[in-house]
Amino acid sequence: MSRDIWDPAVYGRYADERARPFFELTARIHAAHPTYVVDLGCGTGELTAELSRRWPGAAVHGVDSSPAMIDKAPEGPTFSVGDIRSWRPGRPVDVIVSNAALHWVPEHRELLPRWIAELNPGGWLAFQVPGNHGAPSHALVRELCLSEAWKDELAGLVGPEPVDRPEGYLDLLAGLGCEVDAWETTYVHVLHGEDAVLNWIRGTALRPMLDRLDPGRRETFLADCARLLDRAYPRRSYGTAFPFRRVFVVARKPEEEGAG
Questions:
Q1: C-alpha angle 185-44-82 in degrees, rounded to nearest 5
Q2: Most buried residue among 91, 185, 222, 252 by CB atoms closer than 10 A?
Q3: pTM for the whole thing?
Q4: Helix, strand or coil for residue 254?
Q5: In CATH, what number does 8-252 get?
């Protein structure tokens, strides 16, 4: 992208809802005493710090492509700005975590074997990705990008489903000899305030579109999105129900090379 448009304040607006999948993912990592843990696509690093609290004896390092996010990172772990596609550790890793990052990397299935290779024998890879490509929150935005009003500016940003199904990741990682736990969960978040779903996706799914548009056009696009999303996700007395599917994978490398 031409500039860093990650806004930590926008992304952090629903920090509790975004943190829950992280804790449910990492609860299934059964590493007892890792010495080196890496969080790839760590964002602002609050959840990376949770890894330090869980494994106080480990060196924990977070990597993210956004300087704005890394600038907000807490003390405790170490952090660096970098592209997870080209990441290489300086030493073998015991645990690799990637929370809601790999859907931004179309070729991420090609990264997974390389990440497994960077693990010590018996090491762990755990990641979760949004699986909401087919939901109205995303389908309506794609339709809008392809509409007459927006296709000249935004049609090139419409792409295929960015993530696999759980069984696809199972097949890939089991084929590398790993023990794999793969599953999916649909959360029903209750969001509050006006334009609740728009406010959720403007820090994630809408990021490429907002980066592409000039400020005036950006506001017009957001207004068009709000109109569509308000119809698809009506506001109730208790808030706005927002179903959100996520795909989880935890893989353990064989204890011995070639085992499995």
A1: 100
A2: 252
A3: 0.90
A4: coil
A5: 3.40.50.150
Query: Distance between CA atoms of 120 and 93, rounded to whole angstroms?
Result: 6
- The full length of the chain comes to 260
Paired with 109 in beta bridges are none
| Cα 253 from Cα 92, distance rounded (Å) | 12
C-alpha R_g of the chain: 19
155 vs 144, 149, 245, CA distance in Å?
9, 10, 25
Q: Give the E-state strand segments of the chain in sequence order.
A: 36-40, 59-64, 78-81, 93-99, 119-130, 179-191, 240-252
Residues 154 and 212: beta-carbon distance below 8 Å? yes
Q: For 141-199, how does the pLDDT look when each residue is reduced to its tens digit (9 = 90+)? A: 999 999 999 999 999 999 999 999 999 999 999 999 999 999 999 999 999 999 999 99
Q: Phi and psi dihedrals of 80, rounded to 5?
A: -150, 155
The single-letter code of the amino acid at 189 is H
